[in-house]
Amino acid sequence: MHRWRKGRSVGGGVKKLRNSNIRFRESAVRQITTQIGVYALSDLDDVPIYVGQTVAVKERGIRGRVQRHLTSARSDMIANRQLDVWEIAFVRVWPETDKAQINALESGLFHQWDPKSTLMNGRIPPAPPNDFQIPNPVQCIQVIDDAEIALRKTPSLRLPRQAEHYGQMVSHYLTVKDSREIVRSMRAHFERLMRYHGLLLKEAGAEIVGRENGD
C-alpha cells in the first residue's frame, strides 16, 4: 500500500504533480476537435468505458463535451457516478455532421465493445444495420501522461479507488436516483472492481512466492 509521509516538501511535491497532470490534460483536450460527432472514453488500460455523441455546435462540439466530463462540469454521467474521471486516460473522436450517421456510429461502437467489457452507458442504443462499417477514429488523444497512468494502474491504488467509487454509486442509487440506467452502470463498475481485486491478490501472491524463494 502506498503511503504518503507527512511533511511540507512531500505535500509540495504532490501539489506539483497534480498541477502537472492538470496541465497535461488541459493541453491534450485543446487538441480535440470542436466539430460535432461521436467520441469514446477509454480507461487506463485503453479499454473503452463509455461512448457518446454531441450535436451541440455552440458548446464547442466534442471538445466541449469531453471537457465537461473530465472536469465534472454539467455532466449527468459524472453527477450520477456512472463515470469515474480518475480512470479516463484516452479519448477517441469521430467527427460527423449527419445525425443519422452519428446515431449509427454510436450504436455500432456500443454493440462492438459492450459484450467484451460492459460500458458505463446507462442507455442501450438500438443495434446498427448488419452491414454498417465502423471507420477508424480521426483523433486518438491521451489525456493522462505515461508516468501517471503507470502509477494509477498499481493494484494497491486502483482497487481502493474503484471500491470507493462503487460505494458512492450504491449510495447515490439508494438515496438520490433509482433507475435501470444506474443499475446497469453499477454492474459495469462491480465487474471492474472484481477484476482489480483479482489483480491485487495476484500481485500479493507473487510477492509472497518471491519471499519464500528468497528473492
Structure notes:
The protein is an alpha+beta fold. The protein is built from 7 helices and 4 strands, in the order αββααβαβααα. The chain has a 4-stranded antiparallel sheet with strand order 2-1-3-4, with helices on both faces. α6 (155-175) packs antiparallel against α7 (180-212). The longest helix is centred in the last third of the chain and has 33 residues, at 180-212. Mean pLDDT is 87; it is low at 1-10.
Spans where pLDDT lies below 50 across 5 or more residues: 1-10
SSE series: HEEHHEHEHHH
> Mean pLDDT score, rounded?
87
- Rough shape? globular
Count, helices: 7
Counted up, domains total 2
Cα end-to-end separation: 20 Å
* Secondary structure: number of strands: 4
Structural class: alpha+beta
List the defining traits of the structure above.
11% strand, four-stranded antiparallel β-sheet, 215 residues, 7 helices, alpha+beta
Topology overview:
Blueprint: H1 8-29, E1 37-42, E2 48-54, H2 61-70, H3 76-79, E3 90-95, H4 99-113, E4 139-142, H5 146-152, H6 155-175, H7 180-212
Antiparallel strand pairs: 1-2, 1-3, 3-4
Helix pairs in contact: 6-7
